[in-house]
Amino acid sequence: MDTEGTITFRALTSADYRKLRTELRKQYEQDGRKWLAARKQAASAGEEFTDRKPVQPRYRTLDRVTDKSRAQRLAAAYQKKYDALKKAKQQANAT
């Protein structure tokens, strides 16, 4: 999950995973600083602040696979299953 709360499934090597984790941490820190500055500015101006606080990124290893094509198929399958569950939940909430 990234700092906006978007969940994605990816097939990554160990090095790519470490790089992504570092980038997401930096992005979270930057987004947090911007959010705090905007909140402080709104408070000093006497305005209501309604922006959402950045979500701390989360990562989880679902499977360890040595074959790259199998890993990509697995990531696509997880993404498809997640999207289907999300769509069903949205439809249930709409009714």
Describe the structure.
The chain is mostly helical and 95 residues long. It has one domain (14-94). The chain is built from 2 helices and no strands. It has helices at 14-45, 68-94. The radius of gyration is 18 Å and the shape is flat.
Return the string of H and E elements.
HH
Strand composition percent? under 5%
Task: Tell me roughly what share of residues is in helical segments.
Answer: 55-70%
Topology, number of strands: 0
Tell me the domain tally. Answer: 1
What is the oligomeric state here? single chain
Low-confidence stretches: none
Please state the structural category: mainly alpha
Specify Rg, calculated over alpha carbons. Answer: 18 Å
The dominant shape is flat
Topology:
Blueprint: H1 14-45, H2 68-94
Features of this protein?
flat, mainly alpha, 95 residues, 62% helix, 2 helices, single chain
Summarize the structure.
Helices cover about 60% and strands about 0% of the residues. It has about 100 residues and is mostly helical.
